[in-house]
Structures are given as C-alpha cells and as structure tokens.
Design a protein that fits this description.
The complex is a heterodimer of chains A (about 220) and B (about 250). Chain A is mainly α. Chain A contains 6 helices and 2 strands. The longest helix of chain A is centred in the first third of the chain and has 33 residues. Chain B has one domain: P-loop containing nucleotide triphosphate hydrolases (Rossmann fold, 3-Layer(aba) Sandwich), CATH 3.40.50. Chain B has 10 helices and 10 strands. Chain B has a 6-stranded mixed β-sheet with strand order 6-7-8-3-9-10, sandwiched between helices.
C-alpha cells in the first residue's frame, strides 16, 4: 500500500499521544507516592509539572487541527484524529487531578493511622486503569479497552468502601474531621481518574471499530 | 422509491468490458454520487442511463436498465423522448453559440413549442430554477459564450431543465469551475433534488459528502460498494473503498 503524508502525520500523532500518556502515568504514580510517603517536595514538583501536560495537550491539539484542515480525513483516518482530540482532554484532566491530589498533600496533616484500609487498593486500581487505557491506545487493542471500561465499577465500589471507612473513622474520632475530608477528596479524585480512563478506552474502541458506546457516531 | 433500476448490466466497447455485472437501484428525489479512479466505469454507467453510449461505435450492453419500470433499451423506446426525461450536464460547460434565450428555448422548440409567450415563460422558469435568472434577465439576447464558466454551467443546467426532465445526470459538473461557482452548483443540486432525481459523477470526495445521499464506489468496471454516503465515508465495508477515499490507493 502507498504510504502518504497523512500516514507520516499519524505516526507523529501516535508518538505524541504515547508521550502524553506516559507523562500522565508518571505524574499520577508520583502523586500517589507523595501521598503515601508524605513527600511535600515531590508534591510541589507535580503541581509545577502540570504545565508540561497542558503544553503537550496544546501540541497534539494543533497537530490534529492541522491534519483536519489540510487532509480532510474520512473513515478510519477521521476517527484516529477525532478520537485523539477527545482523548487528550481526558488525559489533561487526569494530569489536573494528580496536581489536585498533590496540592492537598502539601497542606495535609498526615496520620498513618488515618489511611482507610481500601485506599491503597483504590488508587492502584485507578492508576492501573490509566495504564491499560493508554496501552489499549498504543496497541489498538479493543478487548483491552473494553476491559478497562468494565473495571470502572471496581474503582467505584472501592470508592464506596473508602467513604464508608472514613465515616466510621470519623465517628470514632470526630476531632480528625479535616483529615477525613482531605482523604475523601483525594479518593474522589482517584474515582474521577477512573472515569477519565474509561472515557479514553471508549475513544480507543471508537477509533478502531467506529462504534462509540456500541453506537455508530454520525 | 426507486426511479432507476440497473440489473446485471455488462457493457462492452467491442471486446473490452467496461462495466461488469452492475446492479443498482437509484432512488427518486435523491442525489446519487459515483466516485472512483479515472477509467473505472462511472462515466460509462452514467451515459447508459440516457443511452449516450449508443453514439459510440462498438458499444453494446447486456442486462437491463429501467426508468420507472420501463426498459430504456427496449425496442419501442423513443430515444429522443428518453433524453428529454433524462437530461445531462457535462464536465465542460457547452453552451450553443447563440443567445442565452435561444440556448434555453432550443430544447422546447425541438419538442414542438413555438409560441413566444410559452417560450418566454419556460426560459424564465428554467433560469430561475437554475438560480441564474437574476444574473441573466437583462442580457437574454446576448451570446451565451460571453458568460463566465460558472454561469455557462448553470445555463447548461437551465437548458437541461427547460424540457422538464425527471432525471438529471451530471458528469463532473464542477471540475472546471472555481470554488464560488462550485458552491453555487452544489447548492443548486440540493435544491433541485426536491423535484428531480440527480446522479453525479465526481472526483471530489468532499463534494460527494456534501451533496449526495448515496454513493457508489467503482473500480475496474465494478461497483465495489454502494451505500448511504455518510456510512460509506465513515465506515466503508470494503478495504478497497477505504484505501481509495483515504488516498492510499496505489
């Protein structure tokens, strides 16, 4: 098959998407690390580093717009560009949430006893979703993308568990309400990260099959 | 509702087979686009719909083409009447070297209309339907050859409409026109489909997407894929269609 200029642009787009994906994976893992080790310096670096994610989003956005303008792609080509445009919004939001978590970390009064039992499992599950969603994009793997979509329920269930544990901790020691609320917000950010990973996986499925949430988009 | 039915159509230029087993149902009051690389048979097929191919020595067909159920290759069919019902506009505007008025009145006169009041009415209505009355009404007695390319093409459409056809065939009607004239012809096509059935050959994918309801992709004399235009351009079924519309054909 003849390789054209558009294919070269798609290769550049893929590389940039993988770069942005790996950037947000690293960021979210670091945020989790900073939270667990109470590493305020690391948390501050993550907040500053969010600008990098934003810049990557702009770069990909302008590449996609240039491809739409100059190539007027159709069929699979159009799906590749339009799904990339949608995915980077979710990737950027994941970056924001990592910065949001880090911001709470910088202001938190840490207490090891306060970490709810399911907190670690929940953050790991959300990070795993992001990792596999990016992987599904890189490999154009529809089965893996569907797997990611299905695993959102796990994160949602764990969020409910964490919430319940925090309610119990709070009723045992009402003086630590501030900490409990901080942890609840962090848990919510992880839950939202799971939602964004789900969105990314849904766009991967669309990009490969043309079906978005099971429907034809027209 | 189907206006034209093409069944098991094979077409030969002497020994060379130019169309292979074409089966297609063309809906009334819709725009059907034919796309495909040069030499794929799309212009050949459009010409079979009003028997323009009869004029080419050695051209013969098997299979059938019906217009409202009537076999257009039937023995008793009046070809002049067929071409009145199925009008055609070509790639290059081809006004007759006469006045604008006479260009439009030519067809009706051929079909026996001679009363001036009636011809005046047909000329005005045809030019209005072709969205060019406003531009030409004060120069009807000037030569049609003095018009711009875009105006000439709309004049040719008006000339085709003057004999009240049911189907309008357009063979790359905008390929020689600038973007503004192209937009006018496309807008006109969209207006005309309310009263006519349109079949358009185009090399411009975006044009097929903008104006047509259904699209047929041709390759080496065969219809590879024929479906709803948006479906064909968003999720083509055949890999050859995808390769062609995304410019990877080679």
């Amino acid at each position: 098959m003849m390789k054209n200029r558009f294919d070269e642009q798609v290769e550049v787009l893929n590389t940039q998407m993988i770069e942005m994906g790996s950037l947000i994976e690293t960021t979210i893992e670091s945020a989790c690390d900073a939270l667990q080790t109470a590493d305020l310096q690391k948390a501050r670096e993550i907040i500053e580093g969010d600008a990098l994610v934003d810049r990557k989003e702009r770069e990909i956005e302008s590449l996609c717009l240039r491809m739409l303008l100059t190539r007027q792609p159709v069929a699979h080509d159009l799906r590749v560009v339009s799904s990339a445009l949608k995915m980077i919004t979710d990737m950027e939001r994941i970056g924001d949430h990592a910065a949001d978590i880090s911001e709470i970390v910088t202001m938190m009064n840490f207490s090891a006893a306060m970490q709810p039992e399911h907190f670690g499992a929940m953050s790991r599950a959300a990070i795993e979703m992001v990792h596999r969603a990016i992987d599904a994009y890189v490999r154009r793997d529809v089965d893996l993308a569907r797997d990611v979509i299905a695993s959102d329920d796990t994160v949602d269930d764990l969020f409910c568990d964490v919430k319940q544990e925090l309610i119990e901790l709070l009723s045992a020691d009402a003086s630590r309400g501030g900490e409990a609320l901080d942890l609840l917000m962090i848990a919510k950010y992880f839950e939202r990260i799971g939602d964004h990973a789900t969105n990314i996986a849904e766009w991967v499925e669309y990009s490969v099959t043309g079906l978005y949430k099971g429907d034809v988009l027209q | 509702m189907s206006k034209i039915e093409i069944k098991n159509l094979d077409l030969y230029y002497d020994d060379l087979q130019a169309l292979k087993n074409v089966n297609m149902s063309i809906a009334a009051n819709r725009i059907t686009a034919f796309i495909g690389p040069s030499g794929c048979g799309k212009s050949t097929l459009i010409k079979t719909l009003n028997r323009m191919n009869d004029l080419i020595p050695g051209c013969h067909i098997t299979g059938s083409v019906t217009l409202d159920g009537e076999d257009i290759y039937g023995k008793d069919l009046d070809v002049n009447l067929l071409r009145k019902r199925v009008g055609m506009v070509f790639q290059k505007p081809n006004p007759f070297p006469m006045t604008i008025y006479d260009n439009i009145a030519y067809g009706p006169r051929t079909h026996g209309v001679h009363r001036k009041a009636m011809l005046d009415e047909i000329v005005e209505k045809s030019l209005q339907d072709a969205a060019i009355w406003g531009e030409l009404k004060d120069r009807l007695l000037k030569s049609a050859l003095g018009l711009s390319g875009g105006q000439q093409q709309r004049l040719c459409i008006a000339r085709a409409l003057a004999v009240q056809p049911e189907v309008l065939l357009m063979d790359e009607p905008t390929s020689a026109l600038d973007p503004i004239s192209t937009a006018k012809i496309e807008e006109l096509a969209l207006q005309l489909k309310e009263h006519y059935t349109l079949v358009m050959v185009t090399h411009n994918m975006q044009q097929a997407l903008r104006v047509s309801d259904t699209t047929a992709f041709f390759l080496l004399g065969e219809v590879v894929e024929y479906s709803d235009t948006e479906k064909l351009f968003s999720m083509p079924v055949d890999k050859r269609t995808e390769d062609y519309i995304t410019g990877r054909f080679g």
